[in-house]
C-alpha cells in the first residue's frame, strides 16, 4: 500500500543528486501539460469539455492535496472537505462584501484558510489513525453546521447566491468562459507543480518516514507534531484553491461544498486513482467525474453502477488504477532485467 | 439562538418531561444502532460504514411485513431477522475479503454498499417517502406524567432498547459465547488454534450488529418517515455516539447515545438551527480532552 512497498517505480536513492534534474523535468512536464490544456479551446468549441476540465481542476487540486495527507503522511482525514468549502465561502464572501480585486481576495482566502487550518490542525494531529479521522470529521461538520445556521452571513442552506463579482484584472476577465478555463488550468498546473515540489523535497521524505515509522522519525530528532501540522496547513491551502476554482465556476458557494461527503469523495478519488503515485489522485478525479457524467446519463440508479465499480477496485485490483499500472510496469521491467 | 425558550422549558415540568422522553427515544434508537457498530469494531476491527443501511432495511422490512400481515410483532421480527441474515451474507461474501487490508479498503467496500443499498431500496420500494403508521395496539390515550405527554409506544421503545442493552451486557460478560467473542476480539489467532471457527464468530457478530440496527429501524418505522438514504444521518450520529463513548465499549455506547439524544432534544429548543452543530461541538470537546472517548481503553 505504501510507496515503499509498492515496488521500485520510484527509488529512494536520488534525493540529492537527481533532485535538480527532476525539478527541471517536472517543470517541463507542467509546461507541456499547460500548453496542451490551453490549446484545447482553439481545437474544440465544446463548452461541455471545457466545463469538465474546470471541474477536474477544482476536484483535482482538492484530491491531490488530500493525498499529501493520506498517501504521503499516513494521515487519513475525513474532514479535508472543510477547507474546500472554506475556500469557496471565504472567496465568495470577500468578493461579494468587500469588492476587492480578485488576486487580493485569492491571497486573503489563503491566509484565512492557513489560520483556521493551523488552529484545527494543532488539535487534530495529536491524535492517531481512526481518532484523527473522526476528529477531523467532527470539525468539518461543525463548520458545515455553522454555515447552515449563520444564515444572515452565509445564506444558510440556500448557499451563497447572487453570483460572485469578477472584475477584470491584468486583462483577465473571469466572466469570460475561456478566460476562466485558462485560469483554472493555470491554477491546477501551478498547484500540482507546487505539491510535487513539496512531495519531492526533503520535507516530503520526512513525511514518508513519519508515515512508515513515526517513532523512528522522532528518535532521529524530527518534530513529528510540527511536520504533521505543516503538511496539514499546506494541504488545506491547496484544497482551498480547489474550492475557489469551484466557487468561480458555479459563481456561488453551497453548504454541500463543506459537507462530509466531499471528504468522502476525496478519499474515494484517491483510492480510485492510487495513493502511491503523485498523479494517482488526478487520474481518480478524471475517472470519477467521467463515471458520474456518463452513468447518470444512462440510468437513474447510478449508485448501483458506481458501487459495483468501487467494488471492482477494492476487491479486484486492491489498489488505485495508476498504482496498479505503475506496479505492473515495474514488475515487467524487473522481469526484463532478469531479476 | 433562542435561549429564552430553553430556559422556559427547563422551568416547566411538563415541557421537561416531554423533551426528556423525546431525548430518550432518540438516544435509545441511536444506542441500538451504535452498539452494533461498536461491537463490530471491537471484535472485527472494522469500521462498518454501511451500518446505517441495516437500520434502513430494518425499517423497510418491518413496514412490508406489517402491511402484509398486520402484526406488529411480526414486523419487528422481520426487521431484526431480515437484517441479521443480510449482515451475515454481507460479512461472509464481501467484508471477510478485506480483513487485514488497509482500513481505507474496508471503508471503500462499505461506501460502495451504501450507494448500492440505497439504490436497491429505491428500486424495490420507490424513491418517495413512506410511512408504516402507528400499530392499532398503540393508538391509545397517551400517558400524562407531571403534565408532560408520553405516548405509550415511546415507553415500549425505551423498554426494548433497555432489555437489549442488559441482555448484551450480561451475555458478553457471563455467557460462554460472550467469552469466546471477547477472546476472539483479543487474540483471534489463539482462539482459532483452540479449534473455534473464528469465521463463524465474525459472521455471527456482524449479523448480531446488523440485527440490532435492523431492530432499531423497525422500532423507528412507526414514528419516523421512511426514505432511501434514511440510514445516513443515523449512521453519522451513531458514529458520534461510538466515538464519544469509546470505540468497542457497550456502556460507552449507552451513555453516549443518551447524552446525544438529550443534547438533540433540548438543543432543538435553545439552538434550533445549530442542533447538529451542538453534537459535533460535544464530540470535538470529548475527543480533544480524551481521544479514546469517555469509556474507551487507551490504545496500546
From TrEMBL, chain A:
<feature type="transmembrane region" description="Helical">
    <location>
        <begin position="178"/>
        <end position="199"/>
    </location>
</feature>
<feature type="transmembrane region" description="Helical">
    <location>
        <begin position="27"/>
        <end position="44"/>
    </location>
</feature>
<feature type="transmembrane region" description="Helical">
    <location>
        <begin position="56"/>
        <end position="78"/>
    </location>
</feature>
<feature type="transmembrane region" description="Helical">
    <location>
        <begin position="229"/>
        <end position="254"/>
    </location>
</feature>
<feature type="transmembrane region" description="Helical">
    <location>
        <begin position="266"/>
        <end position="291"/>
    </location>
</feature>
<keyword id="KW-0472">Membrane</keyword>
<dbReference type="InterPro" id="IPR043428">
    <property type="entry name" value="LivM-like"/>
</dbReference>
<keyword id="KW-1003">Cell membrane</keyword>
<feature type="transmembrane region" description="Helical">
    <location>
        <begin position="303"/>
        <end position="321"/>
    </location>
</feature>
<protein>
    <submittedName>
        <fullName>Branched-chain amino acid ABC transporter permease</fullName>
    </submittedName>
</protein>
<dbReference type="InterPro" id="IPR001851">
    <property type="entry name" value="ABC_transp_permease"/>
</dbReference>
<dbReference type="Pfam" id="PF02653">
    <property type="entry name" value="BPD_transp_2"/>
</dbReference>
<dbReference type="GO" id="GO:0015658">
    <property type="term" value="F:branched-chain amino acid transmembrane transporter activity"/>
</dbReference>
<keyword id="KW-0812">Transmembrane</keyword>
<keyword id="KW-1133">Transmembrane helix</keyword>
<feature type="transmembrane region" description="Helical">
    <location>
        <begin position="98"/>
        <end position="123"/>
    </location>
</feature>
<dbReference type="GO" id="GO:0005886">
    <property type="term" value="C:plasma membrane"/>
</dbReference>
<feature type="transmembrane region" description="Helical">
    <location>
        <begin position="130"/>
        <end position="153"/>
    </location>
</feature>
TrEMBL record, chain B:
<keyword id="KW-0472">Membrane</keyword>
<dbReference type="GO" id="GO:0022857">
    <property type="term" value="F:transmembrane transporter activity"/>
</dbReference>
<dbReference type="GO" id="GO:0006865">
    <property type="term" value="P:amino acid transport"/>
</dbReference>
<feature type="transmembrane region" description="Helical">
    <location>
        <begin position="153"/>
        <end position="173"/>
    </location>
</feature>
<keyword id="KW-0812">Transmembrane</keyword>
<feature type="transmembrane region" description="Helical">
    <location>
        <begin position="269"/>
        <end position="288"/>
    </location>
</feature>
<feature type="transmembrane region" description="Helical">
    <location>
        <begin position="24"/>
        <end position="44"/>
    </location>
</feature>
<feature type="transmembrane region" description="Helical">
    <location>
        <begin position="72"/>
        <end position="91"/>
    </location>
</feature>
<comment type="similarity">
    <text>Belongs to the binding-protein-dependent transport system permease family. LivHM subfamily.</text>
</comment>
<feature type="transmembrane region" description="Helical">
    <location>
        <begin position="239"/>
        <end position="262"/>
    </location>
</feature>
<dbReference type="InterPro" id="IPR001851">
    <property type="entry name" value="ABC_transp_permease"/>
</dbReference>
<feature type="transmembrane region" description="Helical">
    <location>
        <begin position="194"/>
        <end position="219"/>
    </location>
</feature>
<keyword id="KW-1003">Cell membrane</keyword>
<feature type="transmembrane region" description="Helical">
    <location>
        <begin position="103"/>
        <end position="125"/>
    </location>
</feature>
<dbReference type="InterPro" id="IPR052157">
    <property type="entry name" value="BCAA_transport_permease"/>
</dbReference>
<keyword id="KW-0813">Transport</keyword>
<dbReference type="Pfam" id="PF02653">
    <property type="entry name" value="BPD_transp_2"/>
</dbReference>
<keyword id="KW-1133">Transmembrane helix</keyword>
<keyword id="KW-0029">Amino-acid transport</keyword>
<dbReference type="GO" id="GO:0005886">
    <property type="term" value="C:plasma membrane"/>
</dbReference>
<feature type="transmembrane region" description="Helical">
    <location>
        <begin position="49"/>
        <end position="66"/>
    </location>
</feature>
<protein>
    <submittedName>
        <fullName>Branched-chain amino acid ABC transporter permease</fullName>
    </submittedName>
</protein>
Amino acid at each position: 500500500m505504501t510507496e515503499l512497498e509498492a515496488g521500485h517505480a520510484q527509488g529512494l536513492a536520488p534525493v540529492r543528486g537527481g533532485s535538480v534534474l527532476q525539478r527541471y523535468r517536472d517543470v517541463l512536464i507542467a509546461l507541456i501539460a499547460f500548453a496542451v490544456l490551453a490549446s484545447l479551446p482553439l481545437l474544440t468549441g465544446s463548452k461541455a469539455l471545457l466545463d469538465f476540465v474546470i471541474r477536474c481542476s477544482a476536484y483535482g487540486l482538492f484530491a491531490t492535496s488530500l493525498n499529501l495527507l493520506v498517501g504521503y503522511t499516513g494521515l487519513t482525514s475525513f474532514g479535508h472537505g472543510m477547507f474546500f468549502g472554506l475556500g469557496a465561502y471565504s472567496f465568495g464572501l470577500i468578493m461579494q462584501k468587500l469588492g476587492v480585486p480578485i488576486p487580493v481576495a485569492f491571497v486573503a482566502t489563503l491566509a484565512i484558510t492557513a489560520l483556521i487550518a493551523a488552529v484545527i490542525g494543532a488539535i487534530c494531529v495529536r491524535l492517531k489513525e481512526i481518532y484523527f479521522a473522526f476528529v477531523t470529521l467532527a470539525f468539518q461538520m461543525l463548520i458545515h453546521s455553522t454555515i447552515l445556521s449563520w444564515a444572515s452571513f452565509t445564506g444558510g442552506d440556500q448557499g451563497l447566491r447572487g453570483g460572485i463579482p469578477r472584475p477584470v484584472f491584468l486583462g483577465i476577465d473571469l466572466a469570460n468562459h475561456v478566460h476562466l478555463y485558462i485560469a483554472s488550468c493555470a491554477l491546477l498546473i501551478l498547484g500540482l507543480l507546487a505539491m510535487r515540489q513539496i512531495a519531492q523535497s526533503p520535507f516530503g521524505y520526512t513525511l514518508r518516514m513519519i508515515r512508515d515509522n513515526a517513532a523512528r522519525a522522532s528518535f532521529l530528532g524530527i518534530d513529528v507534531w510540527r511536520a504533521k501540522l505543516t503538511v496539514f496547513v499546506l494541504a488545506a491551502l491547496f484544497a482551498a484553491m480547489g474550492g475557489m476554482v469551484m466557487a468561480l465556476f458555479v459563481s456561488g458557494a453551497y453548504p454541500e461544498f463543506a459537507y462530509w461527503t466531499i471528504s468522502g469523495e476525496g478519499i474515494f478519488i484517491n483510492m480510485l486513482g492510487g495513493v502511491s503515485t503523485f498523479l494517482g489522485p488526478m487520474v481518480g478525479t478524471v475517472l470519477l467525474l467521467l463515471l458520474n457524467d456518463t452513468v447518470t446519463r444512462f440510468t437513474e440508479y447510478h449508485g448501483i453502477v458506481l458501487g459495483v465499480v468501487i467494488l471492482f477496485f477494492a476487491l479486484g485490483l486492491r489498489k488505485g488504477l495508476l498504482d496498479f499500472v505503475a506496479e505492473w510496469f515495474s514488475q515487467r521491467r524487473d522481469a526484463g532485467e532478469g531479476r | 439562538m433562542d435561549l429564552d425558550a430553553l430556559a422556559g422549558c427547563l422551568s416547566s415540568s411538563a415541557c421537561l418531561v416531554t423533551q426528556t422522553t423525546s431525548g430518550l427515544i432518540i438516544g435509545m434508537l441511536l444506542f441500538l444502532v451504535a452498539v452494533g457498530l461498536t461491537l463490530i469494531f471491537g471484535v472485527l476491527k472494522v469500521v462498518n460504514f454501511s451500518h446505517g443501511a441495516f437500520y434502513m432495511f430494518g425499517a423497510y422490512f418491518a413496514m412490508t411485513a406489517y402491511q402484509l400481515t398486520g402484526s406488529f410483532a411480526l414486523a419487528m421480527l422481520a426487521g431484526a431477522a431480515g437484517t441479521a441474515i443480510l449482515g451475515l451474507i454481507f460479512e461472509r461474501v464481501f467484508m471477510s475479503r478485506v480483513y487485514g487490508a488497509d482500513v481505507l479498503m474496508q471503508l471503500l467496500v462499505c461506501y460502495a454498499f451504501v450507494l448500492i443499498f440505497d439504490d436497491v431500496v429505491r428500486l424495490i420500494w420507490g424513491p418517495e417517502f413512506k410511512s408504516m403508521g402507528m400499530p392499532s395496539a398503540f393508538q391509545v390515550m397517551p400517558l400524562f406524567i407531571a403534565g408532560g405527554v408520553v405516548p405509550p409506544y415511546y415507553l415500549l421503545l425505551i423498554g426494548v432498547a433497555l432489555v437489549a442493552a442488559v441482555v448484551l451486557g450480561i451475555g458478553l460478560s457471563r455467557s460462554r459465547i460472550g467469552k469466546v467473542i471477547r477472546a476472539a476480539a483479543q487474540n483471534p489467532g489463539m482462539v482459532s488454534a483452540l479449534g473455534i471457527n473464528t469465521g463463524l464468530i465474525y459472521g455471527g457478530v456482524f449479523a448480531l450488529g446488523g440485527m440490532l440496527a435492523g431492530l432499531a429501524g423497525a422500532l423507528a418505522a412507526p414514528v419516523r418517515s421512511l426514505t432511501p438514504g434514511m440510514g445516513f444521518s443515523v449512521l453519522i450520529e451513531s458514529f458520534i455516539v461510538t466515538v464519544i463513548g469509546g470505540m468497542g465499549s457497550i456502556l460507552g455506547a449507552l451513555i453516549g447515545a443518551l447524552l446525544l439524544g438529550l443534547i438533540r432534544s433540548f438543543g432543538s429548543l435553545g439552538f434550533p438551527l445549530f442542533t447538529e452543530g451542538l453534537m459535533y461541538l460535544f464530540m470535538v470537546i470529548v475527543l480533544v480532552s480524551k481521544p479514546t472517548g469517555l469509556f474507551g481503553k487507551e490504545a496500546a
